[in-house]
Design a protein that fits this description.
The protein is mainly alpha-helical. It folds into two domains: 2-188 and 235-451, Growth Hormone, Chain: A (Up-down Bundle); 189-234. Helices cover 81% and strands 0% of the residues. The longest helix has 31 residues, at 375-405.
Length: 452
């Protein structure tokens, strides 16, 4: 069970992050303009974010194993089609399909894990699986850079097919149970459509900031979310029970802490990649070797943090982790064009240690704060916080770059302008993460409530 969850939770974030390093090669092959090229990455994240919560609810009703295996089949087929894409539009279409399959897997993977493990062992299991999420996110650019350089961008998709097959084999042969605690309850189609529209508007709007279209779309999306909340509060069998946020303090503040954490950290890899390649003029392979210091630390300490959260309140461990993450962001924010690489690696390691202490205990707090019938929705909500946070983080980084560089193409000659953008973005990230410490502390104690 743990093997299945770990492999699947690695798969989807790896695909999301590894594609970024291949975008220049994809652009060259299909002669894509910059805006259309960005949709190769954005379409996957957007589709995954839109469908996570609806599929989490569907999994609670129809069965988590069934939805997981359907999602794996969809993801595998679309991955194969991405590898043989013949045009830019077909690639984007198949990436949307990949995102849908990814949502089905990510909405159910953590829920299946929680369903199979008793309360006192959840932290250890979540620690190992969470390590794979962060390894997938952070190793994507590193592994993707080598694969793209050696075998071309299509290899990023081909290399995942054997892993998909292995996950499918384990899922079919090893998982005998099915979990559907909400079986027979209605599915809220109207709420799902309003949710999809609103989240799409927010994500697209933030990606277009500071243009007026971005501002209007963001406002429209926020208004849509208010409408969505009112719908969910007024019907039986909502796709997302608002009482989880209004009456479940640990669930609400743990999700807020997750959103802040991802919003303050996902853009780090993007900015560090630009810093190392454009300012320091390292090649992609060397850049990848430097950046891998972060996931190594995360992979080493996430299981320990998760296991520790079975004994100590997740509130304490996750809050300490958020504090250490803040420290790592501050250390990175003061770097210059001549900072010693040892300092860079050490700062990334501090950041990775903070990630490790925060993530699995925070996920443990979220999943332990809900009834079994809501595990699919809770798992999907965690994934949504991750994806929305990723988009917001990249949006903040992009906005900071736009302030000082405008539409100019990045180059070593513009290092001074980029460093001002870099320092602004990291300062914002650090402030956000500092605020996140208090969101993490505000959740209160989880263990007593879960065992009550």
């Amino acid at each position: 069970m743990l093997t299945l969850a770990a492999m699947s939770l690695f798969l989807t974030p790896f695909m999301a992050s590894s594609i970024n390093v291949a975008l220049p090669d994809i652009s060259d092959e299909f002669s894509m303009e910059a805006v259309l090229l960005s949709w190769v990455a954005t379409s996957y994240l957007l589709a995954a974010a839109i469908f996570l919560v609806p599929f989490g609810r569907i999994a609670d009703i129809l069965g988590r194993k069934r939805v997981f295996l359907y999602g794996l089949s969809t993801f595998t087929l679309m991955t194969l089609l991405c590898a043989v894409s013949v045009s830019d539009w077909t690639l984007i279409a198949f990436r949307i399909g990949q995102g849908i399959g990814s949502a089905m897997m990510f909405a159910t993977g953590t829920a299946i894990l929680i369903s199979a493990y008793p309360l006192h062992e959840r932290g250890r299991a979540l620690g190992l699986s969470t390590a794979m999420v962060y390894v997938g996110l952070s190793s994507g650019p590193f592994v993707g850079g080598f694969l793209t350089a050696l075998f071309g961008w299509r290899s990023l998709f081909v290399v995942l097919l054997p892993l998909c097959a292995a996950i499918g084999y384990v899922g079919v042969t090893r998982i005998k149970s099915e979990w559907a605690e909400a079986r027979g309850e209605p599915f809220d189609l109207r709420g799902s459509l309003v949710y999809a529209f609103s989240l799409t508007a927010i994500i697209l709007g933030f990606s277009f900031l500071p243009d007026i279209a971005g501002i209007l779309l963001t406002i429209l999306g926020l208004v849509g979310m208010v409408v969505f909340a009112k719908i969910e509060l007024s019907i039986k069998g909502p796709v997302l029970d608002m009482n989880l946020f209004t009456k479940n303090r640990p669930f609400a503040f743990s999700n807020l802490a997750a959103l802040i954490n991802y919003s303050a950290t996902f853009g780090v890899t993007l900015l560090m990649s630009f810093y190392l390649q454009y300012v320091r003029e390292f090649d992609p392979e060397t850049t990848g070797l430097i950046l891998v210091s972060q996931p190594i630390v995360m992979a080493a300490f996430s299981p320990l943090a998760g296991k520790f959260s079975d004994v100590v309140e997740p509130q304490i461990i996750a809050s300490v982790g958020m504090g250490i993450t803040t420290l790592g962001l501050v250390l990175l924010s003061v770097m210059t064009e001549t900072t010693d690489i040892v300092y860079v690696v050490a700062s990334l390691a501090v950041l990775g240690f903070g990630f490790a202490l925060f993530s699995s205990p925070n996920t443990n707090a979220i999943m332990s704060s809900v009834e079994k019938r809501y595990l699919g929705v809770a798992s999907a909500t965690v994934g949504t916080m991750r994806l929305v946070g990723q988009v917001l983080s990249v949006g903040i980084a992009t906005l900071a770059i736009a302030i000082y560089l405008g539409t100019a193409e990045l180059s070593h000659e513009l290092s001074d302008e980029f460093m001002r953008s870099y320092q602004l973005a990291f300062s914002v990230f650090a402030v956000m993460c500092f605020i996140g410490i208090f969101a993490s502390l505000a959740r209160g104690k989880v263990r007593q409530e879960a065992s009550a």
